[in-house]
C-alpha cells in the first residue's frame, strides 16, 4: 500500500515539475523563412524572473496577468518582439476590449506562460549558427494545444469588430480571407502560419477540449463581447458586437398594391368612370334625338340677330371690350400698311439692339447647372461639401470585357476542387489589359504649352512619401507588373503557386502585404491601399470573383474648386484619355469607358452632332411655309400669287424674335441651355407660323369693301384676327413666365426665354409682318412676280376662288365631323386615349455600368461645423466604439447597413474619430513624438528620442479630451499607414476633417460609406430618400445638423419633387390661360372653361403617351409639357374665339363655321408645318432627340390636332357658350356687304 502511494506521489511530483518547465526562453538565430524575425531558444528549465523593464512590458501587453513572482518563460526581447508583431491586431481589435483581451491571452500564454509544457510541444530544432551560442538550439516548430472552447469564444468576441477606415470587418484584414469565410480555427491557423510574414517559424495549433497526447489544451477564461473587463473597460459597442445590439432592425413592410378584385385599383376606377360617363352621354344623346324638333325660321332668326335686345350687362361689356381691341388693332394695322418703311426700319433697329446681347451669350453644359437649382437642398449641400472638403474626385473608368467565352480551369496544389476562371481573367488577357493600363498611365496631354501626365493630376493618398497614383484595378494585385503577373513556383511536375492562387488569395484579403501561397507577393496596391474585388471586377455571382466577366479599372483624379489651371490640366488629360480610347483597338477586348468630362462633352456634342438633322427639319418647314402661304389662282399667275418672299420674311421674323429673346437675357447675364436653343425655335415657329397663316389666309379670303383702300382692308382684317392672336400669344407668354417660378434651372430658363420670344414674335407680326403683307399685296395687285418684283405680268381678269384646304374644311370635313352620328363617336373615342444617342461611347459605358458594376456610389454623412469633438458628449454622439451612444451617428449608419435592401446603405461607415482613438492609445506604436522637439515621429522610425504620446496609465488609456484631443489630431491626419501602424489617418481621412486655422479646433467632418448597387433611376431616387431620412434621424438624436452627400444627389433631387413641380407648373399655366382667355374673349367664362378643359385633356393624353413610349418625367420632359401647354392654346383658342363671335343659328352651325374658317389655318399653320419637320428628327442619332424631342413633339402635334380640330368642335357643338347677342348685333352691322356677310347667308 505504501509503495502504491509513493508511486502516485512520484508521478504527481514529476508531472508538477514538468508543468513548471518552459519550452523556450530568449531569442537565438534569425529566421530563415521570415527575414528580420528571430527563433526562440530551446529551453526546458524552470521559468525565470523578469526584470523591471520586462514587468512594464508585461503589464502593457498582458494586463491582468499575475504569475506570482513574475517567473516566466520569456525575456524582455521576446516581449518586445511580441509587441511589434501584434501592433496591427492591437490597432484593429483593441476597439473591442473583450476581443483584444482574449487575443492577448492566446499570445501571452504562448510566449510567456510558466505552464508552457502543459499545452506546448517543441517538435523541431536547429543548432544556432552563432559561435557564441554554440550550446543553444533554435525552436523551429512548435505544437500549440488550444481549447476549442477558448478558440470559439475568442472568435465570437472578435468576429463583428469593424475596421472603420476600410468599411469592412477587421477580420477581413487579419484572417487572410474575407471575414465571412473566417472562423475560429482558420483565423488562428493564419496568425500562426509562417506565410503571413509575421511568424518566424511554424506554430501548429491543435484544437481540443480534452487532453491530447498527454497535453492539456490551453483553455483560459475568456470574456464575451457583451462583458466588461476587470480593469474597468466596458463591453464592446453594438457596431463591434452583434450580441450587444439586441434584435436586428426590421424594415417596414412594403405597402400592398391597391387592387380591386385583383386588378389595379386605378385601372378599375378609370374604366368605371369612363363607362359611367359613356352611359350618361349616350342617354343624353338618345334623349336629344327623340325630342321633337322644330324647324328654324331663318328670317325670324335673322330678325332676332339684328336686334340689339336682351343683351346682358356682361355681354355688353364683352362686346365693348372686343370692339375696343378691334378698333385698336385696326388702326394699328392701317398705320403699319401706310408707313411700311418706318415700321420695318423701327423693327429692325429694335431686333438688332436686342440681338446684340448675343455677344454676351454663354451656353451652360454643366449638368449641375442644368438640373440643380442653386437654392435646392442638394445643391447647397454640394456647395457646403465642396467648400469644406474639396470637390469629389474626378473619375475616369473603363469596363473591359472580351468576346471570348473560353474558361480556364485552375487545379489548386496539392488538392482541391477545380476553379474555373472566365476568359477575361486568363493570363494572356490580363497581360493585354495591363498593357492598356500602362499605356493610359503614360498618356501625355498638353495644357497651355505644358505637358500633363496622370501623375500630375491623379489621387495619390500617401504623397509625398508614395507618389504612385491610385489605380483601382485587379492588376494592382500584381503591383501593375508583368513580372509579378508571370511569377510562379513550379517544377516539371506541378505548379505550386501562380497568378491563379495569388488572385484567389487577394480577392479574399485585398489589404494583405504577403499572401500565404509560396509566392509571398503582396496584394496591396502600389498606391498603398487595398483594391476591393467588388470595385475592380464585374459580372460575377455572389462572391465567386473567379467568374467575373468584366474588369473595371478606375483612375481617381483630383478635382479642384476654384483653381482653373489645375482643373484645366485635368480636363486636358481627360480629353487625351478619351481620344486614346476612341482610337484604341484590340480584337480580344471590348472597352466601355467614361471620363469625368464625358457627360458635359456629350451634352455639348448634342448641340453639334445633330445640326444637320435640325437644319433639314427646319428647311422642310421653311419650304412648306413659303409655298403653302400662296393661293395660286392659275398656272400663269404662279409667281404672282405665290408668297415665297413673304413666307421667308415671316420665318425671319420668328427667328428674330428668338434672337431678341436670347439677346435680352444674355444682356442680363442669364446663361442659355441646350434646351433653350433646341426647343424654343420649334415652339416660336409653331406659334408664329400659325399666326402668319391666319393673317394671310384671312386676307386671301376677304373681299375689299366698297371705297375701301388696301390699308383699311388689312387694318380691318387685323382688327378681326389680332385679338385671337393676342389671346393665344398673351396666354402662352403669361403661362411661360409663370413657369419661370420653377426651381429647376432648365425649366426656369426655358420658360423665361420662351415667354419673351413668343411675345416679341407677336409684336413683330402685328407690326413688321403686317407692313410686309401690305407691300406684298401691292405687288400682287400690280401683277409683279414674287421675289423678282421688278418683272410685271400683263393685266388680266382674275377670278377669286377659295383655297383647296379651306374648301375641304368647309365643304367636306366640318360637315362630316359634326354629323349627328359622328359626334358621339368622336367624344367616346377621344376620351379613351392613353392615360397615365446610339453612337455615344458614354451610352455604351452606362449600359455596361448597369450590367457589370457591383458597388454603389460612396455616400458621405456630413456633420456641419459646431460640434465639440473635444468633449465626451460630442464624441459619444458620433463614434461607434466602447462607451459611444447607442444612437450615435456611426451606430445609426451601421444599423442601417444591416437592412441594406431597404436603406440602400451597404457598409459600416468609415470613422476617423474611432480610428483616431485606436491610433492614440498608449499600447499602440502609432502615436509618438520626438521628446526634444515635440514633432510627430512615425511608427516606422527607430529613434530612442521617440516617446509615446500618452502614458501607460489608467487616464492615458482613456480617450483624449480637451486640448489633448487637438494636440495629437493633426499628427493622426498626417500619418501614413505602414506595416507597424495601419491606423494612420492621412490616406483615409486627410480630407474628412476640416480643421480650424492653427489647428484650434475641428470644423465640419464627414463619415463615408457606400450605397448598395444602384442601376435604375428609381434606385437612385430611393437611395437619396433613404439617406435623407437616416440623416434626419441622426440630426434629431444628436441635436446637430447632419446631411448626406453623394455626387448623384444633385441630379436626382429633381425627381423627389418632379410630380409636385409638374402639377404646379401645369396648373399655374392652365390658370393663366383660363384668366387671359376669360378676359380677352370678352369675359366669356364658359369659353375659357372649355379651352382649359381641352388643354387639360391634351396634357393628360401626353402623360399617357409618355407612359406608352417609356418617356420618363424629368426636367426635359417637363419643359416639353409646358411647351405643349402653350402650343395647345394655338390649337384651341382660335377656334373657340371664332365660335364665340359666330352668328349662325345654333351651336352645330357655329362650330362648323369656326372649324371651316380657323381650322384650315390651324391645320396648315401648325399641324402640316410641324409634321414634316418632326419626322426628320426620327433620323437623329441622339437619344435626347429621339426620345424627348421626336416622340414628344410628334405627340404634341398629333394630340393637339386631334383635340383642337376634332374633339373641340364637337364639344362646342354640344356645350359651347350661348351666342353673345351684343356681339351678334355688332357683327351683323359691321360685316354687311363683306365676304363674311355672304358666308352668313351661305
TrEMBL record:
It is found in: Endomembrane system. Residues 610-775 form the SSD domain. Residues 1-19 form the signal peptide. Keywords: Cholesterol metabolism, Disulfide bond, Glycoprotein, Lipid metabolism, Lipid transport, Membrane, Signal, Steroid metabolism, Sterol metabolism, Transmembrane, Transmembrane helix, Transport. It holds the Pfam family Sterol-sensing. GO terms for molecular function: cholesterol binding; lipid transporter activity. GO terms for cellular component: endomembrane system; plasma membrane. It is a multi-pass membrane protein. InterPro entries: HMGCR/SNAP/NPC1-like_SSD, NPC1-like, NPC1_MLD, NPC1_N, SSD. The keyword Signal applies. The keyword Signal applies. Its main location: membrane. The chain crosses the membrane at residues 268-289, 327-353, 611-632, 644-668, 674-696, 717-741, 753-775, 1063-1083, 1089-1109, 1121-1141, 1161-1180, 1192-1215. It catalyses: cholesterol(in) = cholesterol(out). One of its GO terms (biological process) is cholesterol homeostasis. Belongs to the patched family. This is Niemann-Pick disease, type C1.
